[in-house]
Amino acid sequence: MPRMTGLLAAAAVLGGPMAAQAENASAADQRYCAQLSDLYVRYLGRAEGPPRTGVTPDVDGGVALAKCREGQPAEAIPVLERKLRDAGFSLPPRG
Fold first, then answer.
1. Per the domain annotation, does 56 fall within a domain?
2. What is the pLDDT of residues 2-55, one digit of tens each?
3. Can you tell me whether residue 56 is helix, strand or coil?
């Protein structure tokens, strides 16, 4: 049993920095997702309300915006990046 405790303690010590790094990456991804969402809403569509005149609602974009708001940036970022690039926009720096 003492050996198991030692292994668990070692795992906690080694895993702590990785967990902190993953949390930081997630926070960075969430910030980047918010930047992409702002650009998308400002120039390509609306998050809520009726569509702009002459703008067809984009279901994929809307789902990506919702995922970003729900804290799922990994699923939203590729869609928002593609939509913005396809419309000729440069992406903000990711960082």
1. yes
2. 565 554 454 555 555 445 444 555 999 999 999 999 999 998 876 555 555 555
3. coil
* Cβ contacts of 51-58, under 8 Å, gap ≥ 24: 58/83
Give the range of the structural domain holding residue 56, as residue numbers without chain letter. Answer: 2-86
Q: How many domains is the chain built from?
A: 1
Q: How many CB atoms lie within 10 A of CB 12?
A: 10
Does the predicted TM-score (pTM) go above 0.85?
A: no
Instruction: Give exposure, 52-83, as e/b (b: 16+ Cβ within 10 Å).
Output: eeeeeebeebbebbebbeeeebeebbebbbeb
